[in-house]
Amino acid sequence: MSNTEESTLTQRRSGSTRASVLRRRLGPWGVPLILVAVVVTFQLINERFLSMENIATILEGAMLPAIVACALTVVLIMGQFDLSIQAMAGFATVFFAVLMANFNLTVISALLIMAVVAVILGLVNGWFVAYRGLNALVVTIATASLLNGGEFFVSDSKSISVGIDKSFVGFVRSDALGVPILVWITLAIAGLVWLMLDQTRFGRELKAVGSNSEAARFAGVNVRRVVMLGFVVSAALCVIAGVLYTGRQAQAYPLTGLEVLLPSFAACFIGAAMFKMGKFNIPGTLVGALLASIVANGLLLANVGGYTSYFFQGAILLGAVWFARIVTGKGGM
Predict the structure, then answer these.
(1) What is the distance of C-alpha 104 from the center of its chain?
(2) pLDDT average, residue stretch 255-267
(3) Share of the chain above pLDDT 70, in %
(4) How far is Cα 183 from Cα 17, in angstroms, rounded to an integer?
(5) How far is CA 6 from CA 12, 14, 17, 178, in A?
(6) Looking at residue 311, what is its pLDDT?
(7) Which of 234, 242, 180 is nearest to 206 (CA)?
């Protein structure tokens, strides 16, 4: 072995040793410590950061990305990928508004149609991936492109604000027990998804497929069916998020979903680093969404906006993936 090879090997061993030490010391506490550090930093920058009003703003800002992140978590758990989450949420936002504003439908009627839309979107993604064997990344990129175009088509490339049901807007913007109703809705949805994943046969099959699809197939799991249903669940969650976004903003405009793309991915990977040591999970995803909202809000109060804000969001995602690798000792997720 040459001196160069020995030096390279020594450096790798040294790096591995440092990572092992960091892994043992931090364990599951790394992200909570980062969370505390971020909060303290922003509080020092602006004393209004921890005011009750701003805390409510942070919580409310985390909720819709959290629902979309739960949708992504379901797909990631079953070993797939979905880049259409933002487009499904965005299309739902616009189409739900159009149904009420342009077709004078009641909230209930519009919600029923959106339920059908959710199933169709999930079946399209699931059918191409599970039954046609196409790559999920390619399929969902194509779906996202189609839906983004659909947003401009159904809205006539305009923002929609007149005609959205005021009672629905009032409900989504209301509080319950001093907490924004969106927080309670999100916690309820996340709780149901967690129960589905951890306490039902379908959830166990979903995890089995994500762990080893061939082994799951030999064990009698209908892998294609599970994957398709997983995409349907994901689409349903994205549509719910889009509908709630319409109520929260009292308006809808094309490409709304782009706002939740990075926070949703960051939430999933931060959550994987924080809980269950590298495995995607709902509790971790919620905490990750909260951290992403804290950063976005803190940057706003620190007068950091525009492209700089996007830079920091991207840095969070990259840092989360790196941290997950350190604490789990895995080269990927």
Answers:
(1) 31
(2) 88
(3) 84
(4) 42
(5) 10, 12, 16, 63
(6) 82
(7) 234
Mind listing the domains of the chain with CATH numbers?
28-328 (1.10.3470)
Nearest to 290 by CA among 18, 46, 56, 28: 56
**In the predicted structure, residue 330 carries a pLDDT above the cut 60:** no
> What is the per-residue pLDDT across 265-294, written as a single tens digit (0 to 9) for each?
989 988 887 766 668 999 999 998 998 899
Whether the CB-CB separation of 91 and 184 falls below 8 Å is answered with no
Contact call for residues 137 and 75 (beta carbons, < 8 A): no
Pair of tokens at residue 218 = 């030999």
Cα-based distances in Å from 120 to 1, 107, 124, 163, 198: 60, 20, 6, 26, 26
Scan for tokens 């971790």, then name that residue. Answer: 284
**Dihedral angle at the C-alpha atoms of 194, 195, 199, 200, nearest 10 degrees?**
-100
DSSP, res 108 = H
Residue 180 pairs with which residues in a beta bridge? 175
The pLDDT of residue 63 is 93
Report, as an integer, the average pLDDT of 133-145: 97
Q: Please state, as a whole number, how many other Cβ atoms lie within 10 Å of the Cβ of residue 329.
A: 12
In residues, how long is the chain?
Answer: 333
The pTM of the full predicted model, rounded to 2 decimals, is 0.88
Question: What pLDDT score was predicted for residue 331?
Answer: 47
Which residue is associated with the tokens 């989504």?
Answer: 172
**Cβ atoms of residues 226 and 219 within 8 Å:** no
Structure tokens at 43: 């509080």
What are the tokens at 133?
A: 């064997």
Q: What is the pLDDT of residues 169-207, one digit of tens each?
A: 999 999 998 889 999 999 999 999 999 999 999 999 999
HSE-up of 98 (CA within 13 Å, CB side)? 21
Give me the mean pLDDT over the 299-310 stretch: 79
Give the containing element (helix H, strand E) for 179.
Answer: strand 179-180
